[in-house]
TrEMBL record:
<dbReference type="InterPro" id="IPR019734">
    <property type="entry name" value="TPR_rpt"/>
</dbReference>
<feature type="region of interest" description="Disordered">
    <location>
        <begin position="341"/>
        <end position="360"/>
    </location>
</feature>
<feature type="repeat" description="TPR">
    <location>
        <begin position="208"/>
        <end position="241"/>
    </location>
</feature>
<feature type="compositionally biased region" description="Basic residues">
    <location>
        <begin position="346"/>
        <end position="360"/>
    </location>
</feature>
<dbReference type="Pfam" id="PF13181">
    <property type="entry name" value="TPR_8"/>
</dbReference>
<keyword id="KW-0802">TPR repeat</keyword>
<dbReference type="InterPro" id="IPR011990">
    <property type="entry name" value="TPR-like_helical_dom_sf"/>
</dbReference>
<protein>
    <recommendedName>
        <fullName>Tetratricopeptide repeat protein</fullName>
    </recommendedName>
</protein>
């Protein structure tokens, strides 16, 4: 087996990304063949990145080539109405992304009676523990994994097919690339996830969720500088990002700022925490807002997520207005926003224009 070929990759992924005819591509691509910056790097740290996910290895037989192998199903989702019937074990979804080690096919698997029993036991243990209120066994969730409210993927590779089909029709849709990335990430294939996120950013440099996710993955790989670069961009572009509610967006910004603050400290204050005020994406912020962002980092209490909310709301821009007044960290007085640390900002040397005004 070639280097970088331990886990299967769908040739269609490369074809959709670069428009090459799939028949001209290797039927078994390697990570080195992915036209992106980060896949090889992330592949080297795949175990660390995947540490948050459970391992659920089972022996499955490929219906295409009849050969068996051990595959990591990742998180297993049992349908809630299946809990009543033991035979309902067939009603499960596996979020792990894997392909046949022998023929690189995906999605058609034979489960031996023994594996079915093992899965049933896992489900029973999970049911009992949720009844007792004790911790559920790792990697089991009750419910349904639904995409776009209509599609229930049986395997991680079904979710991939869903998004590749959409992307085949609209290859420039950055949002779909991002969601394909999420599918790979949950499928324990972060090297493919970063590739999809990178594609999202090629199509739309303001794809906030992709910047954020790449940043989080690169942190796990020890790439502080590269990670902070993406996290800062997630913050920077957030005010123009349309695919999330203002509340969720604020959480993303706070999350990014939290990590950026840690990086800032770890790098002995060498790696910038905040986007530079002259970055293209934030030039539309008002002077007061930029001043607030420039000063605020001195007032942040370490280890206190709460103190990051006012700063996050500065970066939300106009979308801040979508937050209910009582749920905002930045308060308004007489219809004017009271910027955090306004007093401190005012203590700065006033701009020339202000100076003249003062003299009068
Ligand atoms: Zn096979």
């Amino acid at each position: 087996m070639e280097k970088y070929q331990k886990y299967g990759i769908n040739p269609l992924l490369i074809s959709v990304a670069n428009g090459q005819d799939v028949v001209s591509l290797s039927p078994r691509p390697t990570v080195a063949m992915l036209p992106g910056k980060y896949s090889k790097l992330v592949y080297k740290h795949i175990k660390t990145v995947n540490a948050e996910f459970p391992e659920n290895s089972f022996r499955l037989t490929c219906r295409q080539c009849d050969k068996s192998g051990d595959y990591d199903l990742g998180t297993v989702v049992f349908s809630t109405d299946a809990t009543e019937h033991r035979k309902g074990v067939n009603k499960f979804q596996a979020l792990g992304y894997f392909r046949c080690k022998h023929c690189n096919a995906a999605g058609e698997w034979e489960l031996s009676p023994r594996i079915q029993t093992m899965l049933a036991a896992k489900m029973a243990a999970a049911t009992i523990s949720s009844l007792n209120g004790t911790d559920r066994p790792d990697g089991v969730i009750f419910g349904e994994a639904i995409i776009d409210r209509v599609f229930l993927p049986r395997w991680g590779s079904d979710a991939e097919s869903y998004f590749l089909k959409k992307l085949n029709e609209t290859p420039d849709n950055a949002y779909f690339w991002n969601r394909l990335g999420n599918t790979y990430y949950r499928g324990k294939r972060p090297e493919l996830a970063v590739f999809a996120y990178e594609q999202a950013l090629i199509k739309d440099v303001g794809q906030v969720e992709s910047h954020y996710s790449i940043g989080k993955i690169l942190i796990e790989c020890g790439e502080l500088e590269k990670a902070s670069d993406h996290l800062r961009q997630a913050v920077e572009f957030s005010h123009q990002y349309k695919y999330m509610t203002a509340y969720d967006l604020r959480e993303i910004i706070v999350g990014a700022l939290e990590i950026l603050l840690t990086i800032y400290k770890q790098s002995d204050n060498k790696i910038n925490m905040l986007p530079k005020p002259n970055e293209q994406a934030i030039v539309q912020l008002t002077k007061n807002q930029i001043a607030a962002t420039a000063m605020l980092d001195f007032e942040i209490e370490y280890n206190s997520r709460e103190t990051l909310y006012p700063l996050a709301e500065v970066y939300l821009g106009e979308r801040r207005n979508e937050l209910l007044p009582e749920e905002r960290a930045i308060r308004k007085q007489n219809n004017k926003a009271v910027w955090p640390l306004a007093s401190k900002v005012n203590k700065q040397k006033p701009a020339k224009k202000n100076k003249n005004r003062r003299k009068r």
